[in-house]
Amino acid sequence: MTLPVTLIVEGAEDSRFLQDFVQFHFSTKLSDKAFIKVEGNASKLHRSRSAIELRTKKGNLNILIFDADALGKDSTLTEIRNQAEELRLTLNDIFLLPNNQDSGNLESLLRDCIPQKNRAIINCIDAYATCVGEIGIENLRKIDLKSKMYIYPGTFQSSESSRGSTRSYLNPEVWDLYSFELNPLKDFLAKYLA
Fold first, then answer.
1. Both 22 and 45 in a single domain?
2. Following CA atoms 130, 109, 38, 87 in sequence, which dihedral angle do they give, to the nearest 10 degrees?
3. Fewest beta carbons within 10 Å, which of 3, 28, 103, 134?
4. Same domain for 99 and 124?
């Protein structure tokens, strides 16, 4: 018998992606109740302490999926483990996006899930970001990777939403969920969902 799984994530964009990813690869629909959204990184774990403790008491496996960010896997893992120990939280397993090895985040993983035929769109968005950055007008928002991953799906008429917390990743015109880059995440989740 498989124990119930709780996925602890940074926010709504992560849970939205994982819901579609799990549905696509494991034919399992995860409700919002399967997630605890910390609304931040390891330094914000304290915000979800009671929810994590409750799931532990219910016998759930607590699986944390966070961004490795620029710190890289080792530093991020150390920070997560230190926070969990300080808060006395049970984390049964940890996966760091994009691939449990490299620095990065959900957005860097999403960039790798863009179908090859659409890579030119990202090149255009990159050029746009460079151009806007060179204009010299004050108070312009920086177009970072998160912004680019917001702009990208909005270029398709078939895409219902660009907003990460509501977008669908099941549209093969926009996202390639068979991407080789997703294999580490798929293999990790298979331990708990297959």
1. yes
2. -110
3. 134
4. no
